[in-house]
Each structure stands twice: as structure tokens, then as C-alpha cells.
Amino acid sequence: MGVRTWIEGWPVYRQLTGTDPLGRGAAAMSARSERLQPRTETADSMARSVCPYCAVGCGQRVYVKDGRISQIEGDPDSPISRGRLCPKGSASKNLVTSELRQTTVLYRRPYATDWEELDLDTAMDMIADRYLAARDATWEDVDDEGRPLNRTLGISSLGGATLDNEENYLIKKLFTASGALQIENQARI
Amino acid sequence: MAECHPVGYQWVMEAKRRGAKVFHIDPRFTRTSATVDTYVPIRAGSDIAFLGGIVNYILENELDFREYVVAYTNAATIVSDDFQDTEDLDGLFSGYDPETGTYDPTSWQYDGHLPHGQMNDTPVQRETAAALQHESHGPPIPPDAPRDETLQNPRCVYQLLKRHYSRYTPEVVERVCGIPREKFEEVARAWTENSGRERTTTLVYSVGWTQHSVGVQYIRTGAIIQLLLGNVGRPGGGVLALRGHASIQGSTDIPTLFNLLPGYLPMPHHANHPTFDDWVGSIAHPSQKGFWGNARAYAASLLKAYWGDAATPENDFCYGYMPRLTGDHGTYQQVLSMIDGKIKGYFLLGQNPAVGSAHGRAQRLGMANLDWLVVRDLFLIESATFWKNSPEVETGEIVPEECRTEVFFMPAASHVEKEGTFTQTQRLLQWREKAVEPPGDARSELWFFYHLGRRIREKLAGSTLRRDRALLDLAWDYPLHGPEQEPDAEAVLREINGYDVATGRPVSHFTELKDDGSTVGGCWIYSGVFADGVNQAARRKPHTEQSWVAPEWGWAWPANRRILYNRASADPEGRPWSERKAYISWDPDKGEWTGPDVPDFERTKAPSYRPPEGATGVAALAGNDPFIMQGDGKGWLYVPSGLVDGPMPTHYEPAESPVRNPLYGQQANPTRKVYRRPENPINPSPPEPHSDVFPYIFTVARLTEHHTAGGMSRMLRYLSELQPEMFVEVSPELAAERGLEHLGWAHVITARAAVEARVMVTDRMAPLRIEDRVIHQVWLPYHWGSEGYSTGESANDLFGITLDPNTLIQESKVGTCDVRPGRRPRGPAYLEYIVDYGRRAGLTPDHHPPIVTTDAVNAARGNAKRSTKKED
């Protein structure tokens, strides 16, 4: 290592002579930190997204590396948020990658004291059977005066405010055609 | 706002930097309070008294924006001679029926009118939360009401309003709200001085207003002020609702709600809507003004979207398949029906009622009494594990070995693992691209419901039962992608937008929807989101490259308008009210409305246009009628139709209050929705005895670092570290009175529950002087439950179930309580502890608080019977 390199290795020298008089950027970098690259630059792809928490609708940029979420940043292009995210939005990568996330179907039998595993396809079929059975058992064709009711009050649903419009649309369409009208979401709360 | 919508709050700070004065009115000093010009503490539940005081200040001092008020509101409209005010009837309006607890609104109408169709049937309106239909449009009324534009007629709305609020003086505000006169006058002065031709003021609220037994009337009072001051339809004005979930606006527009269909069409009622014509006829008054007159086209296009080729004009577009309401089927009624064993199956879709809904114990006992429960979520939330980990397991009320509910936990895809649109709080749709595949068995709701529907239809194939036709005829064919057979979300959005059946061409505006079956339209207010076959919600032009209105970022309903009713930003002749506040104005040379936003008006209808005699619908709107979704084209200071609890907001005490109503003999909202059941005791309030058993007021709210019921925040490491524990905020004075120690334990008690928390002694909570007493308020965050990295007790367990009669939203921002030092008793001793409190408060199982607390009830009822006019 030459003397010149040695002197230039001092942050204070770079701070006094370079473009970073406050010593909070390039002047403060070590050889290692100089070589570091942000995950946003090494990502394979980036998806334009929206924060999933409150209804302000801050823009998010979701960075993907090797098929996994590597970083979520605020989208500076957004006229709503101009790149900012709050503590929840900033933590939303952890929402997706949390160790507590349950990614397989779980099933609790009546009177059981614990969960058991269940195959997704089997679970879907069991739910479809139960849905139809509940509907059959509680179906109301007409009221006392013979006016149509076309419904079941044996089925309920709650949720939708965290879901997409397209999802709410299919939920409402399927439930309505089934006669299941006890459909609610957070907007009632 | 700084606490719960921090990134939106940057614009408030931006305005403050440019000279705006910012006021924060809240029971608790928050992160918002810390940044504003003036913080005004208020007693929780007294906002109408405060806002009514502002209305009185405006009217007494004639500070209203008179030209705007006369031209654009119903201030000049004459009301029926039969109308009697709360001033005459000790807190009741004319037409009250104590048997049903509802009003006959006949006497509230404009002179010469009678209520249209179902608007007269207020018991049904309350049961079905019919007021929610008016999120996109006003209630049906005839267009031709007598007006006195001098505003001198004692029966005109302006004079009625003036009389109604004349007692809401600064002294009354001080006595009711605990706000000192100087602070009140500072707000009133700033609000009025900063409104008019040259300036506008914005009003922002959230669920601190909606979650009350008079929630709708809180917001109405705010709207009255903003209309009187000319702050609606203009830049920098408005009444802004900050909603709390990413697409809660979308799930209201495309409602997963029992009483609505997409675009605020009503779910049919068995008695009022037996036929398609009855249904459509009830939606719009046949002669009313405005775009809501085209409701038949919106209704036909929706049914066409549901039942496709099977829906024809000859069969009324399969209207006969529609399920019918008979009454209240809301979420709280459902929970009580679960306790009664009437409901077999329950789906929870990204919602956690065990923590997030009022009366958590009722929620959990209901879920423990189902045949089956499907929970779709990212995490094992409390609503999935109530059968083995809940306060009721600890008390022995739920025993896993005896709990029959079969539970399916179905893992859900997160927001980055699927594509689709959220509608944020200003009605803006933003498309999200998919970043990665969901892990394991996790799937989108789109996948779950599409494939559930597919399986159900396959199982029913060949059925000859009449009821199965609605499922078998359903238009349920969407393109599927990838190994998991994910439905194409853009195809669904295209159906929501609507298209021409013959050509498949997407419509570009809701005016293109037809009532003859030639168009499909899944949600008429969203028509245009797929204009020109382009997903307009996916537009991402940077804000730096377009105007400040940013019309090319996403897409807002209706028709990409960013400020609703923006015709009001110009004067009646179409000129800007001032250069400083110019927005949309009439260009006489081009013969059209122009500006940085999409005009909320027919583009080429001149300000001088006057409708010909007998015109209806859009043609009946004059060139100076900005409120194009209202039956008379005007902004409503007074609501003759469409609200269950009165045409003008009136101060009532919350359902639980330590204070006797200082203004009227009528204590609380006489039309509030109550459920008189043993599991739903309500703490006593004056004039009943024993309110001193629960002497304090409590309210709840959110923290920046957590999200609602915690299912999306307590499961995250960073957020749990930032706010690790449940706590209760109390004033130093209350801490001294009850012997509470900072950072020690305390518990808050109501007739429903006791909830323990760490004590935060802080002057963020200030005792208030109400009447001649000191009233203490306590505050709790409601994020906690028994699952996740950070656990704690659930504040919403403390609330009972009392609902706003217009929306069926619960009163969960105010209640009464006791506070005691130390932890609460556990196990069976805990149940006995709650029962003992109830005993001391006189809460026997068959005792319920009185609804009517004034002798004027007979006069109010008599008035209703005198109304003998015929339907017009």
C-alpha cells in the first residue's frame, strides 16, 4: 500500500478534499461498504405494487431475486406517496416472509384439541360439500305470503376490505347466485 | 391522521409549510396533535355538540358563503308545515313511533312532497342499513320543491337550521364537550375566515366518527358546515374519509355487504321488491333529476354480468334468481344467530372478528357454535384458534373437547403474490403486478372462489331443483393461467367495467350502459376503468411528469374524476369563484367545461341551460345544478329523505354515558339499533341510576406500528418490537384517584369484560370539566390478541353491541368503564367479577336501558298521525 493510498484511506481526508464535506456519504465508505450494492440493484425483476395496510394507497416497488422477495421500497413516482412508506409499509417484506406465516392447509376436526394436516384438493372438496349441505338444510324458497326469498341464512362470510376488487366481485357473485346473502366486511365495522 | 395514515399526512404538513393552519380535535393527544397549530381535547361522543356550535357560529354571524349556499344547496327549499324540530319535542323530531323506535318521515319532506316508496318504511330502512345506498347518489325525491331564495321564509331550510342550532352556543359547547370557549372560538374563527371565494378548508375524519350510535349524523354535521362555507366540490375543500384498509373502499363499491349490490344498488327486499320493475322503480324517483335516473340500465347490466346469456329482457334478466332480504342480516345479527345455532358455516376472508369486532366474547362464542368455519389468512389469527387459545377457554366457557366447530385454515396469497386492483380512500383504483408465486398451498381469493364455484357447479350438474338454476346459469367462465389454474384478474376487471355484448368492446363510460340486455356491466360506477380496452388502473405516469391533479396515475371512479361535484368550483355563471381557487370552469369560446380534472358535469351543458318543463333525469339538471347525483341537483343541508334518525344532526349522548344530555330530555339516539339479549348488557346511563358504577369514559384507536386487529402486524418482528405490549393511557389525576402506577398493571371493566394492560400515566389524556363535574377519559389501543410475537388482551372485548341505525355500524369509539389497579381475576373468578359489577349496576338479564327518555314522545307521535297527504 502506497502512502497516497494510505492517506486517501482516511475518511477525514476524503471528507476535507472530496465532494462529501459532511462525511455522510462517499467519504465515510470503507473498501467493503464501497463494494456493497443495494438489493434493489441486484434484483432480477421489480413489480409495481400498492401497500396492503391502510387505504392511503402508497406505491410500492417489490424487488425479486431468485424467485423470492428481496426488498420492498416506496415508489417515488406515486403522486400519493412520493416514495414514502410508514413503519408498516416499510415492514411489509416481513409480512410476506414472516416465519409465522402458515403456508399449508390445517384442519381441526370437531372436538379435536389440535390441528392436523390436510391436502388442499381434499379441503376444497370438503368445503364445497359442506357449503352445499348447509345451503340445502337451510334453504328458503318463499316467505309466508309466497313471495320469493331464494336464499339461505345458514351461511355467513366476513372479509373483503383487504382483498382485491376482482376478488370481492367473484365472492359477491358466487354467494348471491347461491342465495347466501349474509356477506359482510370491515366496511360494516 | 399522523398516527394512522402517516404518509397521507405528508400533505397536511405540506399545506402547513405553505401557511395552512391545522387543528386537531381528539379525546387524546396523539402524534397528530404534536404537529398541528392547535390541539383541542374533546369528550368522546360529543362531536355533534361541537360541530353544531360551529354551525350556530356561522349562521348567527351570517358567515356562510351566501351565493354558493343559495345557488348550490337546498337552503332555500321550503319544508312541510307539519315538520316539528327537536327544539319543539325535547330531542325528538315529529313522526316518532315509540313502538318501533323509528320515525315516519312524512312530516320531514319538502313542502308538497311525500316520501318515495321504501323511503317511507323506516323500520325496513334501519334493518337493511338502506342509507348506505347513498354513497354514490342521493335518495329519490321529486325535482320540484318550492324555494325562497331570500332565505326569509321561516319554513325554508336555512331558517330551520338556524333555529335548530341556536342553542349550540359556545357555553353549551363548553358544558357538553369540555372545550373552553376561547379554544372553540379559535377553531370557529379560523374555519370561517379560511373559507369563501378565495380560500377553502378541508375536513378530515375516520372511524372516530363512524363508530358511534349517531355516526352518520356526525359526518352530516361536518357536511353542513362545509356546504355553508362553500367547501364542497372545490380544491382544498371537502369532507375526507380516511379509511383504514387497503381496499375497504373497493369492498364497499363492489360490496361484500349484505344489503348492497355493486355500485350501491340495493339488495332486493322480499316485500318491497318482488319484481324487477318494483326493484328498479324503488331506486330512482321517476321524475328526479340527475344521472341516478338511469338506474335501470345499471341494474340490467349487472344482472347480465351475473347470468350472461340466460339473462334476457323477457325474463327480467333473471331477477327471479336474486336472494331477498327480510330484515337485518348484518354481521352483528349474524354473530347472535351463531350463538343461537342458526348458522352452519362461516367464511373469514382476511378479517379477525375475535379481536377486531365489538364484543369479542360474543364473536368467539358464536364461532364455537358453528358446524364449520373456513379461515383464509396469512397467519393463524385469533379467529382461527379461538377453540384452543382464547379468554373463554380460560374461563371454561369453551372446552376444546366439547366444541363442535370444524375449522379449515386455508392459507392466503399476499398482496405481492397475486395481481388485481385495490381502491384506496379517494376512490382511486391502482393495479398491482404480481411479483412472485404464493408459497405452498397459499392461494388468492380469486382462485379460492373461482374453484369453489366451479366445484359446486360440477356437483350440481344435472340438478333439476329450481334453486340450483341460479348457480348453473351463472356466467362463470374466466380464462385460467399457470399450473395452479389462476383466474385472469384482468378478465374480471373487464367484466366489472362492462362491455357491449355483441362486439365485446369495453364501455368507456357508464352512460354507455343499456337497459335492453345489450351491455354487461358488473359495477356501473367502475365503468371506464377498462376504457379503450386498456387497464386504466395500471397507469403509472410519474407525478413529476403530469399536472398536480395527476389524472394519469391509476383511475378514480366515477369517470376518473378526482374531485367530486367539481362543477361547484365555478360560480353559477361558470366562472372560477376566484383565480386562486380556479379548478373547473366554463369556456364560452369552446362551449365546454375545462380544467385540470374531468368535469363532474355534462361537458357541453352551458351554465345558462334551464331544463324544459317536465324534463327528467340528466336533462332536468340545470346548468347551475352541481350535485348531479342528487334528486334536486343540490347539496343537502337538510335531509328530507334517506336517513332514519332525523333530517338535521342533533346532539345525543352515547348509548353509554356518565352524563345526562344537557340539551334535551331525550338522552341517546332514539332510533339506535339495539339487541336486547342477556349476553349484551349495556352499562346504565342517566336518567337511570347506577351509572356511577362505570364512572369513566373509554375510547380506543390505532397505533402507527400496528394494523387494526393485529393480524398483519403482531406477526411481524419489526412491528412487534416497535410496539411490544398492550397498554392503557390514563391521566395523572385519574392515576391518583384510582391508585394506578406508571408501567404497573391495571384493568378496565365494563358489563361485558375486563381487559388488563400496562399503565401509561400521561398528560396525553386530560380530565375534562363537563357540566359541573370532572370527567376522566381513558384510552386503549385495540390491536392485541393471544397470537403472534406480541400478545395482549383485546380492547374491543369491552364494548357491547349498539349500532348506528343508518349503517348498522357499532358504537365502538365510546363507552363507560371502571378502572382498577392490578391484573384482573382469572378463570371462574373472572366471570363472577363481571357478574358482580353488573349486579351493582342493576343489570339483571331482563333489564334493558330505556330508548325514550322524554315525555314529549306523545306529542311527537301525535304529529305523525296528523299527516294525511297522499303519495305524489
Runs of chain B in which pLDDT lies below 50 for 5 or more consecutive residues are 864-872
CATH topology of the domain at 23-241 in chain B: Dimethylsulfoxide Reductase, domain 2
Alpha-beta content class of chain A:
alpha+beta
Tell me how many strands of chain B there are: 30
Most extensive interface, residues per chain? Answer: A-B, 116 and 167 residues
C-alpha geometry of chain A: elongated
Number of domains of chain A: 3
Multimeric state of these chains?
heterodimer
Report how far the terminal alpha carbons of chain B are from each other: 46 Å
The span between the termini of chain A is 68 Å
N-to-C order of helices and strands of chain A: HHHHEEEHHEEHEEHE
Subcellular location (chain A): Cell envelope
GO molecular function, one term (chain A): molybdenum ion binding
Pfam families (chain A): Molybdop_Fe4S4
Family (chain A): Belongs to the prokaryotic molybdopterin-containing oxidoreductase family.
Describe what you observe in this structure:
Chain A: Keywords: 4Fe-4S, Iron, Iron-sulfur, Metal-binding, Oxidoreductase. Chain A: Belongs to the prokaryotic molybdopterin-containing oxidoreductase family. Chain A: One of its GO terms (molecular function) is electron transfer activity. Chain A: It comes from Micromonospora pattaloongensis. Chain A: This is Formate dehydrogenase major subunit. The complex is a heterodimer of chains A (189) and B (872). Chain A is an alpha+beta fold. Chain A folds into three domains: 3-35, no CATH class; 39-97, Single Sheet (N-terminal domain of TfIIb); 106-188, no CATH class. Chain A is 34% helix and 24% strand. Chain A has helices at 3-8, 11-17, 31-35, 39-42, 87-90, 92-97, 120-138, 165-178; strands at residues 45-50, 59-65, 68-74, 106-108, 116-117, 139-142, 148-158, 180-184. A three-stranded antiparallel sheet of chain A has the order 1-2-3. A three-stranded mixed sheet of chain A has the order 6-7-8. Chain A is elongated. The mean pLDDT of chain A is 95. Chain B is an alpha/beta fold. Among the domains of chain B are: 23-241, Dimethylsulfoxide Reductase, domain 2; 331-424 and 429-469, 3-Layer(aba) Sandwich (Rossmann fold); 673-840, Barwin-like endoglucanases, CATH 2.40.40.20. Chain B is 23% helix and 12% strand. In chain B, strands 23-25-24-30-22-28 form a six-stranded mixed sheet. In chain B, strands 9-10-11 form a three-stranded parallel sheet, with no helix packed on it. Mean pLDDT of chain B is 95; it is low at 864-872. The chains are: A alpha+beta (189), B alpha/beta (872).
